[in-house]
Amino acid sequence: MVRFEDVSNGSFERVSFRIGPGMLCKIIARSEPDKNALLETMLSLGRLDGGRVLLMGRDIYALGTKELLPVFGRMGVVLKEGRVISNLRVWENITLPACYHNGAGPSELEAKVEGFYLAMGFQKGRIGSYLGKSPELLPARERRLMGVIRAMLAEPDLIIYDSPFEDMDAETAGRLDEVITRFHRAGKGRATVFAGSHEEALGPARADMVLKQQGKGFAS
Amino acid sequence: MRGLESDNAGDGNAILKAAGFRNLEAGVLDFFRQSAGALELFFISAEKFRDLRRRPVKTVCYRQIYFTGVEALSKIAAIALLIGLVIITQVSRFAGMDAALTGKVLVSVVKELGPLFVAVIVIARSCGAVASELGSMRVNREIDSLLVMGIDPAGYLILPRIVGITLSVLILAFYFQAFSIIGGLVASSLLDGIPFYQYLSGIYAELGFGDVGISLLKGLIFGLVISTVSCYHGFRVRGSATEIPKATTAAVMQSLLLVIAADAVVTLVL
């Protein structure tokens, strides 16, 4: 699913690892900038000084935008700051990839979205008005939750979480961990990657592989 | 000393002239480079035409039509009514109460100016809005987010805006013409006492399908120019938020120049 082959970037050198189908992996970087550099390299948004990055078996730095989009269409990415599309409401943000890629209609997605927010401890009566809000009014951790359900609705083969439990109280973190673990198990061969700059940001889920940054490299 | 001063002044003038010429040269080159870039963006987006079948893309398109077309309707109607009224009043002042002549003048003015007026109003309302919206999406890295979601920004952001603005300009041009004729009708009946049927028969005699076709063609071209140029300038914003107002100004000015140039070309050719 994710393969780094001798990848070098300003922050790390000759990094190699492989995250296969069905695996749950945690990657702990030394600092926020190093973690960001790793994620940007993994998503072909950052610089690559050497080596190859393969997602779903495709060398993403060798692909043009046209070929890259179907690869990203099979993935879900949840960024720490919960990056949103500012001119869309919460509901439209959440359903965008699922509607775009799978042609899913609102009725199909409504129950799943409501189920997610109920599992996260939201009151049933509050969810409707919450979904009509502008996402820019929400705190970062709530935007991150939006990112989680947005990624899940598209039923991806690979899901990457950037510090999903950062700044979260223990109860919400526990609920989110349960939802993420259940989602990981539900997808056949679905790979899950957690990336963060410290262990607390990655939650309690038991990982099949933990990669820790040591100097300019990563070791399991 | 005096000679040296005048020599220096001469050098200064030469330097200023050279600098002015270089600025002009750079400005013209930039204009053509940006126009070529906008054309390229148009073709890239046109390739994604099938994306219009996707629900989220359709939603963006409907919103653009609502913002550019529906919300501008009342303003366009008011301006068109007043323009019709002004034209008839002016014509009747120098030509007297000749229904055939007033109809002829009104039709030709409306045919020529209708799409152009609409284009200017749309540039004022929508061009800057689109450029700044896309520019801020670029600065906030929302376009990167779309890519990471596997969503093509050209198909999701640019194409529906081009389609929405172009359709809006086409429909607004038609509305403008209809309302300016109504304005003229009201003015000629109330101020000059020309009977409705006489005025309408004057217009009917002058207005052919060819005239309507030409003004719709202009509307189509202007719509494509305005939408593509505003998307292009919004999309090429890089770096900080201070780039957004620059992009907005550039989008407005370039749209205005290209629309007037296109109007001149269509008028000369057809």
Summarize the amount of helix of chain A as a percent range. Answer: 25-40%
The coarse silhouette of chain B is globular
Give the biggest sheet of chain B: none
Strand order of the largest sheet of chain A: 6-7-8-3-9-10
Regarding quaternary structure, what we see is heterodimer
**Number of H/I helices of chain A:** 7
Strand-pairing-aware structural class of chain B: mainly alpha
Radius of gyration of chain B: 23 Å
Uncertain spans of chain A: none
Largest interface: A-B, 28 and 21 residues
Number of helices of chain B: 9
Unreliable sequence segments of chain B? none
Number of strands of chain B: 0
| Mean pLDDT value of chain B | 86
What proportion of the residues of chain B is helical, as a percent range?
A: over 70%
In total, the number of strands of chain A is 10
* Proportion of residues in extended strands of chain A: 15-25%
- Report the order of strands and helices of chain B: HHHHHHHHH
Please report the distance between the alpha carbons of the first and last residues of chain A.
17 Å
Radius of gyration of chain A: 17 Å
Description:
The complex is a heterodimer of chains A (220) and B (270). Chain A has a domain at 86-155. Chain A contains seven helices and ten strands. Chain A has helices at 32-42, 65-73, 90-102, 106-119, 124-131, 140-153, 170-186, and strands spanning 2-8, 15-19, 24-28, 50-55, 58-59, 75-78, 158-162, 191-196, 209-214, 217-219. In chain A, a hairpin with a 2-residue loop joins strand 4 (50-55) and strand 5. The radius of gyration of chain A is 17 Å and the shape is globular. The two termini of chain A are 17 Å apart. Helix content of chain B is 87%, strand content 0%. Chain B contains nine helices and no strands. In chain B, helix 1 (2-47) packs across helix 6 and helix 3 packs antiparallel against helix 4. The longest helix of chain B has 46 residues, at 2-47. The model of chain B has no long low-confidence stretch (mean pLDDT 86).
